[in-house]
Design a protein that fits this description.
With 216 residues, this protein is mainly alpha-helical. It is 46% helix and 11% strand. The N terminus is likely disordered. The chain binds manganese (II) ion. The site of manganese (II) ion (MN) has 7 residues, from helix 2.
Length: 216
């Protein structure tokens, strides 16, 4: 039912993160790389807190809030689209974090190729212009939130969404996200969000972004 091939949420690990335990609860999926794989840009300490504590807590709260409701058996992305309030916040934070961590890699800076490059050049002029606008959106998003690259038909655009914001609620298909909550970078770059965003470009896994593109 939750095969990646048939799911349109964009999350390549959709099937994995929707696995339930015997009590019908979501469980924290394994990080798709070693805890120190993103060093020196994102430290194992940050991964330990961000993935191991923050994400785990969102999942714990999501499980508590969905139990006994109409949302109990829905896949994660459907809870995101249909819920409100605390349940939405925790479901969206769960989705957003999996989406963010899934498209990072520590094997050296990669570049968009293929369809991803075509879409970026069509909508932004060049990959560099896209990165500049995305970086600016992240640097100027006030408080906590997420910057997204989304696909809207044959175009791509940048959305800067506060708090747990998620583009699925606007009917837009996510391709890439950047977490700009302070907990994402404070241990590594303290108040310097711009430095964290600069490091993010060295970690983006463009092959994953390519695989997330919805074929028209
Ligand atoms: Mn986070």
């Amino acid at each position: 039912m939750m095969k990646n091939e048939t799911c349109n949420c964009g999350l390549l690990c959709c099937e994995t993160v929707n696995a339930r335990n015997k009590d019908n609860q979501f469980v924290l999926a394994s990080l798709p790389y070693a805890v120190d794989a993103l060093e020196p840009y994102i430290s194992k300490e940050t991964i330990g807190f961000h993935y191991g504590k923050h994400l785990a807590t969102y999942i714990e709260n999501l499980n508590k809030l969905k139990t006994g409701t109409e949302f109990e058996n829905l896949p994660l992305h459907e809870i995101v689209v249909r819920s409100n309030g605390g349940l939405f916040n925790n479901a969206a934070q769960t989705f957003n974090h999996y989406f963010y961590f899934e498209a990072l890699q520590g094997n050296g800076e990669s570049q968009p190729e293929g369809k991803a490059r075509q879409l970026l050049e069509k909508s932004f002029g060049s990959v560099e212009d896209f990165k500049e606008k995305f970086t600016q959106a992240g640097a100027t998003l006030f408080g906590s939130g997420w910057v997204w690259l989304v696909q809207n038909g044959d175009n791509v655009e940048i959305l800067a969404l506060g708090n747990a914001g998620n583009p699925l609620t606007e009917g837009k298909h996510p391709l890439l996200t950047l977490d700009v909550w302070e907990h994402a970078y404070y241990l590594d770059t303290q108040n310097a969000r711009a430095k964290y965003i600069g490091n993010f470009w060295k970690l983006v896994d463009w092959e994953k972004v390519e695989r997330r593109i919805k074929v028209q």
